[in-house]
Each structure stands twice: as structure tokens, then as C-alpha cells.
Amino acid sequence: LYVAMRRFWPETQYEVAPHDAVTAQARIGATAYAILAPRLFPGDVVWCEEMVEYVPDDMRLLVVCASRSQAEEIARGVSPDKPARFTWDTELATGLRLYKRFAGSLEIAENFA
User: Fold this and answer.
1) Which 3 state secondary structure label does DSSP give 70?
2) If you average pLDDT over residues 37-66, what whole number do you get?
3) Neighbour tally for 81: CB within 10 Å
4) CB within 10 Å: which end of the chain, N or C, has fewer?
5) Dihedrals φ, ψ of 54, to 5°?
């Protein structure tokens, strides 16, 4: 994610494991992003859904999943009141596409490819 963000926003500031609730956080200008990166380990979907509740309200949430199916599963468990964007590993290989939850599935919200 960091490499993809740097392509589009060279001024990106990035910090890995800033505290227990997020995997990383990034700042682009005045906007702060909380980043969760669940992998395909047992329990990661539940972990991610629980950690979403700890993300500060003043940060945008990015969830970088291992696969689209994992992103869809996590999106179903995240409250619609929590604005979140999702992507997964293969999407990051070609650019930066962020998806949002829509009608029980994911649709492209932002495409920087």
C-alpha cells in the first residue's frame, strides 16, 4: 500500500504499527488514514472487524486484505456508519483502487490506476 500511495502522493508519511488497533497509519496532507491489513490467518477477519471499532473517528479507514473475498467478508461485518475503503493485494499490484461497501458487495469508490 505504501508503495502505491507514494506513486500518487510522494509526500505520504507512513508509520508501521503506531499502536495496537491499526497495522499502520499514513498521512497525506491534512488527512490521516488508519490502515488495517488482515491476512489469511485464522481469526484475522474477526480481529479486523473488532479493530475497526478502535479506529479514531478523525481518521479515514483503509483495509488492505489478502483477497477480494476476504475484503467482502470483512466489509459485511463493518458498520455502514463507519466510512471504510477496501483493497486487496492483487489490486495494489496494478495501481491503487479503493472499494466501498454497497448493497452487500464492493464497488469502486476511488481509482488511481
Assistant:
1) helix
2) 88
3) 5
4) C
5) -95, -5
Pick 43 or 14 by higher pLDDT: 43
pTM of the model: 0.84
Residue 32: partners with Cβ closer than 8 Å, 6 or more residues away: 25, 26, 58, 59, 60
DSSP state of 26: E
In the numeric block, which cell numbers belong to residue 99? 472499494
Residue type, 31: T
Q: Which three cell numbers stand for residue 53?
A: 471499532
Going by C-alpha positions, the residue among 61, 66, 64, 91 that lies closest to residue 79 is 61
Going from the C-alpha of 37 to that of each of 29, 30, 86, 104, the distances in angstroms are 22, 22, 10, 21
Provide the terminal-to-terminal Cα distance of the chain, rounded to the nearest Å.
13
Reading the block at residue 5, the C-alpha cell is 500511495
